[in-house]
Specification:
The chain has about 190 residues and is an alpha+beta fold. The protein contains 3 helices and 12 strands; from the N terminus they run ααββββββββββββα. The protein is globular, with a radius of gyration of 19 Å. About 20% of the residues are buried. About 10% of the residues have low confidence.
Length: about 190
């Protein structure tokens, strides 16, 4: 009897923890236009380095990623920008946050960024605000592809049904994406 109660309590704990993580990773789906509109900056850059730090104010680990700015179609950030996102590993302690983007040194990306509390620059819409940049082997064209290529149906509070947002475009020429961002930013 005691064993069954322990198993039930353990299962309930797993369910509650999982639910908490799912809620923490939930954001409003964003198409390209809303990412541009909600961002203070949009950059095309190359990751120079990333480094975890302990932040006493939030009592969590944050990872700072420094990027060389190769192009800035919206906003002015200078030749280098530091993006700070929650999570990382320091020694034998790790903090993980679902949906938060992680970057690799020398990786090229288009990032949609906003000013956040604590004098931080963060990615808009978590992973939705990241486009990976690659080279087409056959044509040598630079291509950009959303890290999150398709949207799921989402439930918005106050509505009695799921809302199917417009799907984000797939892979496209980097120059075309940067041009579209500039055009949208000018109109705003």
């Amino acid at each position: 009897m005691l064993r069954n109660a322990f198993i039930a309590a353990a299962l309930m704990s797993v369910v509650l923890i999982s639910a908490g993580l799912a809620i923490a990773a939930t954001v409003r789906a964003a198409d390209l236009e809303s990412l541009i509109d909600r961002s203070d900056y949009v950059i095309y850059g190359r990751v120079l380095w990333h480094h975890p730090i302990w932040d006493e104010a939030t009592r969590t680990i944050w990872t700072i990623t420094e990027l060389q700015v190769l192009d800035g179609p919206k906003g002015r950030v200078g030749s280098v920008v530091r993006v700070t996102e929650p999570g990382g590993v320091l020694g034998d302690i790790g903090h993980m946050f679902p949906g938060v983007p992680k970057f690799r040194t020398n990786q090229e990306v288009v990032l949609f960024l906003y000013h956040a509390p604590g004098n931080r620059i963060r990615v808009t819409g978590i992973q939705q605000g990241v486009y990976l940049v690659m080279t087409n082997g056959a044509t040598r064209d630079r291509l950009a592809q959303p890290l999150v290529p398709l949207r799921e149906a989402v439930y918005e509070a106050g509505r009695g049904h799921s809302v199917q947002p417009r799907q984000q475009t797939g892979q496209q020429r980097l120059d075309d994406l940067l041009f579209a961002i500039r055009q949208r930013a000018i109109k705003r």
